[in-house]
Design brief:
The protein is α+β, with helices and mostly antiparallel strands. It has 4 domains: 87 residues, DNA Primase, Chain A, CATH 3.90.580.10; 129 residues, DNA primase DNAg catalytic core, N-terminal domain; 187 residues, 3-Layer(aba) Sandwich (Dna Topoisomerase Vi A Subunit, Chain: A, domain 2); 134 residues. 53% of the residues lie in helices and 12% in strands. The chain is built from 24 helices and 19 strands. A 6-stranded mixed β-sheet has the order 12-14-13-15-16-17, sandwiched between helices. A hairpin with a 4-residue loop joins β3 and β4. α1 crosses α4, α14 packs across α15 and α20 runs antiparallel to α21. It is globular and about 80 Å long. 33% of the residues are buried. About 3% of the residues have low confidence.
Length: 580
């Protein structure tokens, strides 16, 4: 899309117009403030600059322009935000291929018409309605999720859509019919239909659960049939229920994965609207990328049968590798989330609340199962330690190593030794100890130290623009360089847009405090603490990696321990000011 289109949108909308669609703004000097849409808070920490066209949220650390804001709020990529804002601004987006645009619109139209057809058929099927009631689904939920029914005939939908002016080839492209030597026939027959929506709430596909009032050939038919992939529907990118769950996921800072459509509908009905379901495929990195825009905390609430456990393991493997805080809800054997919700909604909520980290989940199984010590050790080695290796934090690894040591009654060094062996087999896995900041290009990795350095850079540029701050600016530069030894960071070239963002954030940050100088001093103090923490972690890691290989003399080990203690003492002496 051309830059002219973006500028057209910006000329017709400003950041205030966009933000007011999501939050209640109030004037704060030349800027505006509101309660954060990203976190639960009582004091406003979300600021918008009409002059800069930027926003910044102190409680979450998120900031940017109207496009990144819509990306955050709607869970879409840049192209999706562009489409939403263009529609609001009255700017027409003209793709390079007008035929492609026309076909997409026709696909959306035929899917919408199909949904209405299924909804109408459901109303004529009392047995299906009775089944949904027995499963606990209310009429309100059925309407909200637009549940319908595909009749048992071979060409009912095809002939209906044909009579409405849609071609057979378009139906096939939408994944609604299948072609054969005898012509076209309906893909979904004798099934309860669950429309699948994209993140903007537009229907792109279907999932159908078998339900034949006549009972014909049910045993020979797959329980679920999903749409084939189309130009609108990529199974690896779309989560069932996400369009309705995204705001609750952000508010609760948690995403709960369930296994099927009925589990999902009942979970939302029970008040846990932060639930989504993977439909027709395994959890993918693309799914997690979508979720990361709203939270990095996951709970898996799958059935306790073998298939459910296998699905949990596959999902958790990917989630941990991608740096998510991942827990497992302990579903009782022989039940699924739908059973629990129908039995007791509060019990369901408690199960989610008490979900365990996957490593704790397996460690607790060591107590439940009557295993010998040797069997327990083998389970730790084969199942638990690979998860420990995948953790993105050295501190988290150390915490779980301590738990494993206590559980098995072995020395800690033996666990670290086994971890070392696993790391050698998987050299690509390494702790990151970092925070991932998402933008509309490549993910940018920022540690806490780097975040503080960015804040200091913003204050530096902000003070440069104030006529009476030259002396303070020079003092800040000298103190920063004395702490870091970096003489280029504050003065290296950055883009005008990036500089504007940093200045806006610094201005808001400093103007909210009683003493600007105190806030600058706190930033510098916290930067020094982070540098010392990094040094301490590196020393500790060196000690752990070498103590089992006998590479250190007793004196060298004592020197390392003293350095660690001295560094920790220096950190403690700096105090406990928190600025982020």
């Amino acid at each position: 899309m051309s830059k002219d289109t973006v500028e057209q949108i910006k000329s017709r909308l400003n950041m205030i117009d966009v933000a007011e669609g999501y939050v209640k703004l109030q004037k704060a000097g030349k800027n505006f403030k509101a309660l954060s849409p990203f976190t639960n808070e009582k004091t406003p920490s979300f600021f918008v600059s009409p002059d800069q066209g930027l926003y910044y949220c102190f409680s979450s650390g998120k900031g940017g322009d109207m496009f990144t804001f819509v990306q955050e709020m709607e869970g879409v990529d840049f192209a999706g935000a562009l489409k939403i804002l263009a529609k609001r601004a009255g700017v027409e987006l003209s793709p390079q291929n007008p035929k492609l645009r026309d076909e997409r619109e026709k696909l959306f139209a035929v899917l919408e018409m199909t949904t209405r057809y299924y909804e109408k058929n459901l109303r004529a099927q009392p047995q299906v309605i009775e089944y949904l009631k027995k499963r606990g689904i209310t009429g309100v939920s059925a309407k909200a999720f637009r549940i319908g029914y595909a009749p048992e005939g071979w060409r009912g939908l095809h002939d209906y859509l044909l009579s409405r002016g849609f071609s057979s080839s378009l139906m096939e492209k939408a994944g609604l019919v299948v072609s054969s030597t005898k012509g076209y026939y309906d893909r979904f027959r004798g099934r309860i239909m669950f429309p699948i929506f994209n993140s903007s709430g537009i229907i792109v596909a279907f999932s159908g659960r078998i339900f034949s009032p006549s009972g014909a050939n049910i045993e020979k038919t797959a329980k679920y049939v999903n749409s084939s992939e189309t130009s609108l529907y990529n199974k690896s990118e779309i989560l069932y229920g996400f369009d309705k769950a995204k705001q609750a996921i952000r508010e609760k800072n948690l995403c709960v994965f369930v296994e099927g459509q009925i589990d999902l509908v009942l979970a939302h009905q029970a008040g846990t609207q932060n639930c989504v379901a993977v439909s027709g495929t395994a959890l993918s990195k693309q799914h997690l990328s979508l979720i990361r825009r709203f939270t990095e905390n996951l709970v898996f609430a799958f059935d306790a049968d073998n298939a459910g456990v296998s699905a949990v393991k596959r999902g958790i493997d990917i989630a941990i590798e991608e740096g998510f805080e991942t827990r497992v809800a302990c579903i009782p054997q022989g039940q699924d989330p739908a059973d629990i919700i129908n039995e007791d909604v509060e019990k369901w909520k408690k199960i989610i609340l008490n979900a365990e980290h996957i490593i704790d989940f397996y460690l607790n199984m060591l107590v439940v199962q009557p295993n010998s010590q040797r069997d327990a050790a083998q389970m730790v080695e084969k199942i638990i330690l690979p998860y420990v290796v995948k953790l993105g934090s050295s501190i988290s690894q150390a915490q779980f190593v301590s738990k494993i040591t206590n559980k098995l009654g072995v020395v800690e060094s033996s666990i670290w030794k086994e971890l070392g062996k696993i790391k050698q087999k998987s050299p690509h896995i390494a702790p990151q100890d970092s925070e991932q900041i998402i933008n509309n290009e490549k993910p940018k990795i920022l540690s806490r130290k780097d975040i503080i350095k960015e804040k200091i850079k913003g204050v530096f540029y902000w003070q440069l623009g104030i006529s009476d701050s030259e002396e303070k600016t020079n003092q800040l530069k000298e103190k920063y360089e004395a702490i870091t030894g970096d003489k280029g960071f504050l003065v290296n070239d950055i883009s005008p847009a990036e500089k504007g963002r940093l200045i806006f954030e610094a201005e808001i940050y400093c103007n909210q405090k009683e003493s600007t100088q105190k806030q600058i001093d706190d930033l510098l103090l916290n930067l020094k603490k982070e540098i010392l923490k990094e040094k301490s972690a590196e020393l500790y890691q060196t000690l752990k990696q070498t103590e089992n290989s006998f590479q250190l003399t007793q004196q060298q080990e004592a020197d390392l321990l003293k350095q660690i203690q001295d560094t920790q003492r220096e950190i403690d002496n700096l105090g406990s000011t928190i600025i982020l």
